[in-house]
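Hi P.,

Sorry for the delay on this. The queue was packed all week, but I finally got your sequence through. Input first:
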Amino acid sequence: MYVSSSTDLEWGNFSPSGPWVLNPNSISWSRVAVVLRSSAQREVPHLIRSRRLPPVGRLATVVRHLGWALLPWFYKKKRGQFKTPEESRAYLSLRLRVAIEKLGATYIKLAQIISSGEGLFPSELVDEFKRCRDQVPAEPWDTVQNIVEQDLGSRLTDTFSSFDKTPLAAASIAQVHRATLNSGEEVVVKVQRPTVSTLVRKDLRVMAWLAPFMIGRIKIAALANPPALVELFAETIVEELDFRMEASNMVDIAAMLHDLNQDAYLVPRPHPSLVTRRILVMERLQGFNFDDVEGMQAAGIDTEEVIKTGMISFMEGALIHGVFHGDLHGGNLFVLSDGRTALLDFGIVGRLTQTRRLAFMRLMLSATTNDVKGQVAALRDLGALPRDTDIDAVIIDLRLDQPIDPTTLNGEELVQEVQRIVKSLLAYGAKLPKELMLYVKNMVFLDGAIARLAPDLDIIAELTNITMLFTQRHGEKLFKELGMAASDFQMDLSSVKASLGVDESVDSLTYRELQQRRELIQKRMKEHLTR
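Then the structure:
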């Protein structure tokens, strides 16, 4: 895939003057990553297969911690001790977060996924679970030192001249520490928690055993049955348990960004030799937290441009190369002083097969040409619907050809509409494939990021600009792969506008206006449900 060169900037998006030069052709961990990735995915069916009994000890631990979190909340709620629904949700969210931290990596990772779902989950839960991104209790220093020395096969001082005992951040799978190599380079060291690999596998077996009992009992799982959610989660997390795969992901994303001329995004260099299953040494970069809007603007950074570039980069990677960062959230990227964005944490990366990449392309193209049937067919080809699905029947049952403005409905009508859609999707056997879930999760994150960094961005105008940019940059390749003539492409954002809940005659819609519409819808639904 790569050609050896005198500088890694000729093939990858890295910092201008790195502490070392990467040559992917001579890195051992890069060569084994493909095998490791394939092995991890083959393990998933074994982890989630049907069992008469789960790991009983672990099941008891999970029930004990979650029960301790829920029982006091049930008691207080029954006695009417919460003044408002928000107070009730905040209390429950806090107790769940504490319980999840005690349960460890698997449940912390679930909390991280929920924390990226602003607008999908209650704000109190999202805000509390954001602390699970990098504020989880850290492993003691002795444990960290032992892991580093065991995996590197030498004493800490043989490799590092300094190593901060206090971590920069601690999350579900690992924690990161500042350090300096004996050769003088300032680095960040990612260290895997000692029992995480064993614990994750036990937890997946517990979840797989519990999932069938939860069918129809959990509202949040309405659009995908719990066993399918467990399988989806297993496919995602098993690849995070070996940092050689993550280092390889970093190289692949850097190469993809360079190939697409996405100069506004870069990746820290992984060390060419200091990467093992549980240790990942990478160059240290510094910048603004992605949520630090005031700090960025004070430094003269155009935060609206940061968002625009991010939207294009994310979509280009998925549609053109079939590769994209699969876990975007505020803790996984920061903005450098020159306005470029550094991506972090590559444990989860979306990789589309050629068939699914083309399906994604058809989905996006159909959305910009108001081809509703094409969109549903593309979702089927992505695995969201069974292969034998009657496309026309889906369109009729979901009333996709009759878009409505949700702000014109009262609370009861909104609830009924949601219930109707959910019921129809379940009847068709709809599910959320891994790649589609990662893509949607990232879009939810970008949606929330627009609210903070560019609330006055014209969504419709920007989608128009992105569509035109795509056709200018990749039109020839895109139309050739899809087997259509460029002259057949006629942009029509009617279905996109329908997905935003506005009439096709609307030509401008800022994110601030969109958020106001969403708040009105949520208010009406909440008022109806609390009657």
